Amino acid sequence: MNIESLKIFCCVADELSITRAAERLGRAPSNVTTRIQQLESEVATDLFVRINKRLSLSHAGEQFLEYAKRLIALEEEAKQVVLGEQSGGSVRMGSMESTAASRLPQLLADFTKRFSQVHVSLKTAPSSRLIDEVQKGLIDCAFVALHAEQIAHDELDDRTLNSLPVWQEDLVLLLPPNEAGVKDITQLETRTLAAFASGCTYRKIAETVLDIDASSEWCVQELNSYHAMIACVAAGHCVTLLPRSVLELSPAAKTLASLNCQTIDTYLVWRQGHLTPALSRLIDVVKDTL
Fold this sequence. Notes:
46% of the residues lie in helices and 23% in strands. The chain is of the alpha/beta class. The strands form 2 sheets. Strands 4-3-5-10-6-9-7-8 form an 8-stranded mixed beta sheet, with helices on both faces. Strand 1 and strand 2 form a beta hairpin. The longest helix has 25 residues, at 59-83. Residues 1-58 form the HTH lysR-type domain.
């Protein structure tokens, strides 16, 4: 199976357009179409569904996409291991939104200063999704948080993942202006939690602390950024749980009250037995920050 064809397939799957994929790849649309047809012939099934000139992945295409990404990643990993010091290599990094905002700017600046030849790509997502992607080889490493159940059941070891505790985060419950005098969670009148989608460790901790599962009064407002969550709290609509390091980046740290909840570690995780030279350099820099 040709790696270049897999890369073309992934690009088309991302764009869901032959024309846009061709522009992105610097190829003629006819060439992209031919490579997709050849790949479909090779796997003996349609990878895309074409209806009224609109393109979407077939069920088989959705399944194949994950394997295609893993094969591409494995090829890159093999190149880096073989070439070693001859190539800067690359690191595909994942991170929680909070870590990307408050911890990574300085870390990545230090890393780039020391290893400018290494290309670093970064994506953000909830911890559970990042752990899945590291295990599947879709990304090389990720900064994640673990809740008590995951730690108790040795989830990372069961998934054959290495872990390194990097930072401790003090989690606080940010309160709306009308709850400024509240000194204990049991005194809260607000019944809306602003949080990321399911899979976020901090959301799970907040749901536990607030005993949301046991109450039909609570609702969860899903948002995509801490900026939006803090704004909704400031408007008096909800509470939110976030690291103090993130809160201190906002002017709201001086105007909104908060309650201390707990301290939790942020871990760097990567697959056991899959340590490229570039990833090894990143881990060294992370250890230096400790």
